[in-house]
# Entry
Amino acid sequence: MIQLPAGVQLQEKTLAFLAKPQQLFIGGDWVDPKEGQYFSSLNPANGETIAEVPLATALDVNQAVAAARKAFQSQWYPKVNPATRSQLIHKLADLMQRDLQVFMELETLDNGKPLNKAKYDVLGAINHFRYYAGWATKIEGSTIPVDGSKLVYTLREPLGVVGLIVPWNFPLMMAAWKLAPALACGNCCVLKPAEQTPLTALYLCKLIQEAGFPEGVVNVVTGPGLPTGEAITQQMDIDKVSFTGSTVVGRKIMSAAANSNLKKVSLELGGKSPNVIFADADLKAVSQSALWSSFYNTGQECTLGSRLYVERPIYDEFLVKLKEQAEQLSIGNGLNNPDLGPVVSQKQLDRVLHYIELGQKEGAELITGGERCGGDLDEGYFLSPTIFGHSNDDLQIVQEEIFGPVVVVSAFDESEEAIRRANNTRYGLAAAVWTKDISKAHRFAQATQAGTVWINGYDLFDPAVPFGGHKESGIGAEMGKSAIDLYTQEKSVWVNLT
# Structure
């Protein structure tokens, strides 16, 4: 029986889903893992086991790839025309909207995030499916004038079978970022959710069945990076791997792709995003945004504004306000809709606490936080929002991605210094600048080495806008038309007219 906070009730569909043994989804069927291994999916709010989930080995991955290849060649592309693909994706989005609350509850139980944040994620996933449903009928080639005696045209075709590996911080939304364009382009998919958060991906399979997708078009295998993820990256019949996660793992995936069949790779990796605040900024707007850009999703966000640079005339005032606001954030079980939930696992909690200890040893000033929450929260993986002040960008807590509710704040004196320090990182995922001087804002945006720059805002996303990293933050951009390029390949056709 799942432990629930007082007064909280789950949807009957949620309870029914959790009451059944979890299985892999391969070839349109629910199947048990071939080697009979399972692992526990835990509720980070209390450490309780929510479900026992199949641990897929290379045998299961091979079966899923074979089912996807069979579907691609015999049932999906090109036999299902683009208009029908669009209708199927729209139908899936409709079913997700119907079961919105179920997805929210599963995401909160599995990941720990507050229900209202889970709602934002699920709605974002639905919007992605709707956006790419529209693209299915608009993927075109072109004609190229070369010689009067020749007709040359291009075809933009799906890759075939794609492996999709998603992280635990935004489980359903990241799955949608990959599944939606891959399906719209005509690919068949083998999806691996993070082992910490497999439940919404498995529930999505129920709706994929209900929507009427041909068997094998979408397959879901659950398990950790080893052996499940590794089996996907090494599989010789997968044409492309799309991965969102750490830069360390991204390197391993590139190596595996090179050492297997040179499969295509797209990566959305780590970040250590600068959030730069000039003295002329609207401090009322900055104040609330800086709080959430520092601690949103309990700091478990690749675009987290974890490096705050504040112009010196307002530094002290800003730091006092940020500290006050951080200490007022409510922390608790996500089903109670607090401001912040737990971090995802004991392993992640230990990692963040290690960085906090390291920051203190390196000489950074601990402004607030830095401790595991006790009392009623001691059974879960709860951590208080943590702020460090510093003047040394070489500190590990400044340079390395922590992936927890930890932000480092420093003062700067001039624009050139702010730009230099913003770029002083191996990452280049996102950045933000706050100023009323529009010329200054655009100069910052042009000079900043990041895939996304926000001006007087933070964490602004839309399915139509490309998102990807520079430097060690990734390869390729998801969302928008850019994602169509990630899941298709171009073919040139020459016709001799003489």
Residues 274-462 form a domain with the Aldehyde Dehydrogenase; Chain A, domain 2 fold (CATH 3.40.309.10). The mean pLDDT is 97. The chain has two domains: 12-269+474-492, 274-462.
